[in-house]
Amino acid sequence: DYYWCADYMRNALGVNDPKLIFLSYTTACITGPVIGGFVGQGVNYFYGSYENPGAPYVCIGLQVFTTIFGISATFMSNLYTFVGCLTLFLCFVSAVLSLCIGFLIVSVRPGLKSISNAISNITMMFLLSGTSPMIYGAVNDYFKPKGLNRMAMRFIMSANIVGILLLLKS
């Protein structure tokens, strides 16, 4: 995932300093998920855990914030506002992820918890981490010659809408 974010910072935001790109991306990737983990667990603690019947709605709300900050990041023309939105995006992704893992753990029979968690992680890695660089590259290859350097990132960040739809369905 570093490649597409670095590519975006270079081509869409015009940042040419590799050290600044690395430092910016690293800062977002460390602070966002760590804060998100605390947010997710704070929601669990104060809201009454993922066993609360209203917890899926909290998860949907967090996913809406994920989508808002993800799409907003693609409209930022400044590196620092982009990194701020990216950090908040990663924060809410982590918060939603920790809640969804909790949903999985409480909804599966005791003997199947470990295998269901493993299948969930493999599926997530395959569908998200495995395909996002390929999809980003394909969309970027199509739109970049037309001068639309932000379209690939907008496409990737807009895919979070699918998360909202899946949460609404459950």
Description:
Helices cover 79% and strands 0% of the residues. The chain has eight helices and no strands. Helix 3 (55-73) runs antiparallel to helix 4 (79-107) and helix 3 (55-73) runs antiparallel to helix 7. The longest helix is centred in the first third of the chain and has 30 residues, at 18-47. 28% of the residues are buried. The mean pLDDT is 84.
In short:
The chain is an all-alpha fold. The chain is 79% helix and 0% strand.
Low-pLDDT ranges: none
**Count the strands?**
0
Number of contiguous helices: 8
- The average pLDDT value, as a whole number, equals 84
Tell me the series of helices and strands, N- to C-terminal. Answer: HHHHHHHH
In whole angstroms, how far apart are the ends? 28 Å
Class by helix and strand content?
Answer: mainly alpha
Quaternary class: single chain
Fraction of residues in helices? Answer: over 70%
As a percent range, the share of strand residues is under 5%
Which tags fit this structure?
170 residues, mainly alpha, 8 helices, elongated
Please outline the helices and strands.
Layout: H1 2-11, H2 18-47, H3 55-73, H4 79-107, H5 113-129, H6 132-143, H7 151-158, H8 160-169
